[in-house]
Write a structure and sequence with these properties.
By secondary structure, this protein is an alpha/beta fold. The protein contains 10 helices and 21 strands. The strands form 5 sheets. The protein has a 9-stranded mixed β-sheet with strand order 4-3-5-6-7-8-9-14-13, sandwiched between helices. A hairpin with a 2-residue loop joins strand 18 and strand 19. The chain is globular and about 70 Å long. It binds 5'-O-[hydroxy(phenylacetyl)phosphoryl]adenosine.
């Protein structure tokens, strides 16, 4: 599918558009959101001070806590009558973050989502089986509107009902499965249990997102379903799904739709921008949102930006796929680890199934980590040996071994049919 001219525009043209839209966004925030007006006044910044994209650094940052503090509508920039839709992002604690859209916001969202699906190789006329949850979560309706905008057929099945999903896919010949990466594997597993070879199912693209997906996990999805796995990223505070996506040509970094969202990467400790090509926390500014303009949102997601050319011809910056968040860093007896690092090591080992959980406890004032790993169905080797291999590999790669490592039978670890998978349980 050909991309739109803006996706491959000259960088200078993109920058020009970004400055204009950034200024307008600051104006909207300043005029209509008292929260932002106060912050901008404190910093002595007026909308007219935005003369370049770099001037974004003059702006205040917005945090998750700001959304909570301003609950429900303190960050909205338009009158109630202009709000056409509300979504919410469920946190594990406290109030949800409420987000709002005008008609125009929904159009823009649908357009970036359609662009995303097209970049992932989806063609108009194809059938998209949308297994993201419908409702307050942005995944369901976000994908839905985008797929319709691209003139696809949508099956709005939502999360769960997995046997039915498998039957529908076979009977209605769905080309695209949109779901979380953990659900894609659960879907394949269920298909197998129902007597299908999942590789024979008609799906050719899996647009996975909403959760981290490491490389070994993606390989597993692609192999089990014999489909292209494409990483789709987004978050409610900025719009929902459709902030960035991998192109099918390169599958090497997610193109951020920079005409609508301005990305920066900062050092999470200092808030200063990192050097080019370094990893840090992704910060996003909306460039055309009417109902909810957001300045420099600290996503908590760790990534790197790449401005070099992409083989697909798009000029929009690519971000590395997000496998860690600043707040899911596990610190066990002074060792800093991200769950994705553990996942990367263990899923690369033959005989290990892509299901695991990490439990953190405190015993006698010490941090203790239990790692539970599922053995692959096809594994018929020696479990004791596999146990040793996992320990050794973790020690070699991460200089860390869990206090307890338990191997469990295939199917023992609970599967997540609806919503996002949880892998870390902190009992401390
Ligand atoms: O998860 C939106 C979405 C729906 C994205 C469907 C993709 C597909 P929230 O519930 O607000 O929105 O959660 C946003 O989820 O800050 C990341 O930490 C994580 N996340 C989203 N996409 C990815 C991804 C939706 N592709 C939070 N890889 C974000 C890793 C992701 N993490």
């Amino acid at each position: 599918m050909a991309h739109k001219p803006i996706e491959a525009a000259d960088r200078a043209e993109i920058r020009e558009l970004q400055v204009d839209r950034l200024r307008a966004t600051v104006e909207n925030a300043y005029e209509n959101v008292p929260f932002y007006r106060e912050q901008l006044d404190d910093l002595g910044v007026a909308p007219g001070d935005i003369g370049s994209v770099e001037d974004v650094r003059k702006l205040p940052m917005t945090t998750k806590e700001d959304f909570r503090d301003e609950y429900p509508d303190g960050l909205f920039a338009v009158e109630d009558e202009e709000i056409r839709r509300i979504h919410a992002s469920s946190g594990t604690t406290g109030k949800p973050k409420i987000v709002a859209y005008t008609d125009e916001d929904i159009d823009v969202w649908s357009e970036v989502m359609a662009r995303s699906l097209a970049a992932s190789g989806v063609e108009p006329g194809e059938t998209v089986q949308n297994a993201y949850g419908y409702g307050l979560f942005t995944g369901g309706l976000g994908l839905h509107y985008g797929a319709e905008e691209l003139e696809c057929t949508v099956i709005p099945i939502g999360g769960g009902q997995t046997q039915r999903q498998v039957e529908m896919m076979a009977d209605l010949e769905s080309d695209v499965l949109a779901c979380t990466p953990s659900y894609a594997l659960y879907f394949a597993e269920t298909a197998e249990e129902m007597g299908h070879d999942p590789r024979d199912l008609p799906v050719s693209t899996v647009a996975f997102g909403a959760e981290p997906c490491t490389d070994p996990m993606r390989e597993e999805i692609e192999q089990r379903l014999d489909a292209n796995g494409i990483d789709l990223y987004g978050l409610s505070e900025i719009v929902g799904p459709g902030v960035s996506i991998e192109c099918v040509e390169a599958k090497n970094g997610l193109h951020v739709w920079e005409d609508r969202f301005l990305p920066e990467v900062i050092d999470p400790a200092t808030g200063e921008p990192v050097k080019d090509g370094e990893e840090g926390e992704l910060v996003l500014t909306t460039l055309s949102k009417e109902a909810l303009p957001v300045l420099r949102y600290r996503t908590g997601d760790l990534t790197t930006l790449y401005y070099d050319e992409c083989e697909c011809g798009r000029t929009m910056v690519r971000m590395d796929n997000v496998t860690g968040r600043t707040d899911d860093l596990i610190i066990v007896r002074g060792v800093n680890l991200y769950p994705s690092e553990i996942e990367h090591v263990i899923l690369d080992i033959d005989g290990v199934a892509p299901y695991y959980r990490i439990d953190l406890h405190e015993r006698d004032n010490l941090d203790v980590m239990e790692l539970t790993v599922e053995v692959d169905e096809a594994f018929d080797g020696d479990r004791q040996q596999l146990h040793g291999t996992i320990q050794k590999r973790l020690e070699n790669v991460l200089a860390f071994t869990p206090d307890d490592l338990e191997l469990v039978d295939p199917g023992s670890i609970a599967r997540t049919e609806v919503g996002k998978v949880q892998r870390v349980y902190d009992h401390r």
